[in-house]
Amino acid sequence: MATGTNRQILLVETPKGKLSPQNFSLSEGAIPSPKDGEILVRVKLISLDAANRAWMQGATYRSAVESGTVMAGGSISEVVESKAPGFATGDLVFADTGWQEYAAIPAKAADKVPAMEPMSHLLSVYGIAGLTAYHGLLDVGKPKPGDTVVVSAAAGSVGSIVGQIAKLKGCTVIGIAGGDDKCALLKSELGFDHAINYKTEAVGKALRAAAPKGIDVYFDNVGGDILEACLFNMNNYGRIACCGAVSQYDGAPPAHGPRGIPGLIVVKRLTMQGFILTDFNDKREEALADLQSWVAAGKIKVREDILSGLENTPAALIGLLAGENIGKRMVKVS
Amino acid sequence: MATGTNRQILLVETPKGKLSPQNFSLSEGAIPSPKDGEILVRVKLISLDAANRAWMQGATYRSAVESGTVMAGGSISEVVESKAPGFATGDLVFADTGWQEYAAIPAKAADKVPAMEPMSHLLSVYGIAGLTAYHGLLDVGKPKPGDTVVVSAAAGSVGSIVGQIAKLKGCTVIGIAGGDDKCALLKSELGFDHAINYKTEAVGKALRAAAPKGIDVYFDNVGGDILEACLFNMNNYGRIACCGAVSQYDGAPPAHGPRGIPGLIVVKRLTMQGFILTDFNDKREEALADLQSWVAAGKIKVREDILSGLENTPAALIGLLAGENIGKRMVKVS
């Protein structure tokens, strides 16, 4: 049995406005013992996701994170003790362990993952980010060769892969991101055709210039004004894949939705469709095989942003919500 | 060749706010002569549609109606002179003749329709209204037996048929309409399970009571606050068929869209899809056959609201936008 302390990050209280370090505290507890059917895992790499912020508020696809408890979050972890068939010490799993060094979790809530180098790819291109990009673009957005595809939060973990998959499917790809450095990288390194810096450019005007024939597929990670600008530039029969609304997670809920709904939806015969990765569990192996072949062939470049130290996890999430990362952000714990 | 005068209703100017009688004028012109490839028709029954109002402003699926010209509108008309192969005197056609007694139109812009009793069914259940209800509900909304289906403008030409088709497909049906008389009729005559009077009831609360298991399909004719109330009550994987936004046609465009977009679209994995009837031209015969069999079997009751006299057409549209009709409104011209 593991002995020693278990450092944990607690959510002190449900944030009312912008997330701040004061919403979290570092605590030390005992390393738990797994019950029958459980495994004890040591957390290695914590995944940071904009959705973490939405979970705090509730009203998502999972129950709210209660104040005073360990902050929820997915991680790659190593089994250190197993009381469940099919799991052995040394196995790697992906699970919602929360932000802590050790967790005892039901084996049925853990997905075994293969050892690989670098392990971080299990959280980026072969994790939720890569699979979300894959299914959201291909199964929801359904781009055809020659289509114009726009993706927001384009330098983020999902957007950076969406754009690259769209390119290899023969589309013209426009990324929307916050910062000239991000925009430069999208074009020079990731092969995007155009990049729009929403912090300095008028997005609607920039879209009209970059997509003179209109937008066929918009992969929406942000909602709000950028969704509205895309709506006004969609082509007839365009598809909007609704993946997230990061512009609306960190603060009060917006007073109103984007203009043009439902008028433009009708006139242009648009389809807006929301999705969550687990909707596509039955296609997971096919998706992973495609992603692996594309990475191996150099057709998808994987960007990661790895910080160190459990104590830095709150700042890592706050920074992610402010858009400071390029590619998939994670925190190395052990 | 026909001689005599041709009474016409002109759109005097593009309305800036609510439509009023002053936006129209009655004019008399000569009966036109058809050119080669054209037919001269005598207008019998003019179709009134909320979309007529949207056409005036432009930015729809057709070009705007220019001020000073005959107001656009579909009608059932009779051919009085043909200079086009395939059309003979006495044939009935559906075409955008505009609001006038006679029109010379390209034969290719006219659809021949069969003589039937009552002729008005060509504009209601077998016309744009019935076909829009059919395809929008079945091909876009895709209800399954046992689903809860909500339709707005439920006592209107489209909504009254949507609800009846949903009932015969085994769904629980809730209609939203403006007025206790309409709500009573939906339940007593058209077989709806519940009816909500949006003028006197809080729609969100009424929906929670009428649809305790949530909404699976929402057929949206109105947009605005009612769309928002439905969004908040949709079930996971629900479908919203976007048919129109009548709440937003007669006045200034809304400052904002409904709240909950895209957040609820993502979390509930909703699909919002806009459509226009012509998208389903290839399924038209099948739809008409179904509608005819349902009407013959008494499974669909057809409500019509027929006014008389070309000069009353502006008032008929203004009244339709104010919701005074039950069922399909039309004006008998000759």
TrEMBL record, chains A, B:
Keyword Oxidoreductase assigned: yes
Any one GO MF annotation of this record: oxidoreductase activity, acting on the CH-CH group of donors, NAD or NADP as acceptor
Protein name, entry field: Zinc-binding dehydrogenase
Gene3D superfamilies: Medium-chain alcohol dehydrogenases, catalytic domain, NAD(P)-binding Rossmann-like Domain
SUPFAM superfamilies: GroES-like, NAD(P)-binding Rossmann-fold domains
Domain Enoyl reductase (ER): 19-331
Pfam families attached to this UniProt entry: ADH_N_2, ADH_zinc_N
Alphabetic keyword roster: Oxidoreductase
Keyword flag Kinase: no
Top-rank taxon, per record: Bacteria
